[in-house]
Amino acid sequence: MSRRYLPGLFLLAAAGWLASAGPGADQKVAGPARPPEGWATAAPRDEIRPEFAYEASGGPGGKGGFLINSQGDARQFDLTTIAALASGAWVEKRGHNRTDGGSPFYHVYETKDGEHVAVGSIEPQFYRLLLTHTGLEGAELPAQMDRPAWPDMQKRFAAIFKQKTRDEWVAIMQQTDICFAPVLKMSEAIRHEHNRHRDSFPLIDGIAQPAPAPRFLGTPTAVQRPPAKVGEDTDEILRDWGFSGAEIAALHKSGAVKSAG
What we know:
10 strands; alpha+beta; three-stranded antiparallel beta sheet; disordered N terminus; formyl-coa transferase, domain 3; 261 residues; 11% strand; elongated
């Protein structure tokens, strides 16, 4: 990943989450589907927070270490929208704000092949790149933050993105700072280069599972076991809840519970 800036929408798209959100199959992919504002990382793979490492190491006398916190893994959201609301930059009407699907530069668009792409070009320099790579550079356009003009600009971008397939747009935009990602299905996300590089979905007994997050440098984490079979832990859980052997047997006999195997 050469990208220096990965917005939250990109991470949701690349993780396979965004493709599973929103309206039904006969409607468009929802977008953007995330708590708005302030969710981004300036590092393409890991964001290292020394202040957390200090606490984890026990202070100045500890051994030391770093907490490697990938927001793409953790899907951590904040609510700095409160500040935007106070400043007047946010309005309490869905689909009318920068990052709730209201703006043309932070949105999900359908492509020629019926797939989707996500763009999150909030900053002016990224928006200029978006205009360049969609062929709108030099065109007579409203200002980026001209809110009344957003619906018309969304339609304009929508028509442009419909002219090429998702893979064609990936070839054009993937290695730029537009803040762009293809909207991946979960099965595609497992194979995506970003997730493969991070080993975000390790295979355990042939089944892909999400890796633990956050990750600690010097304290490796790993998926401990394959996914449980339906009913595998029934008896153990009932015992933890205080049921006796006879009571558990009675529950099985009545058909109230079942165990695997």
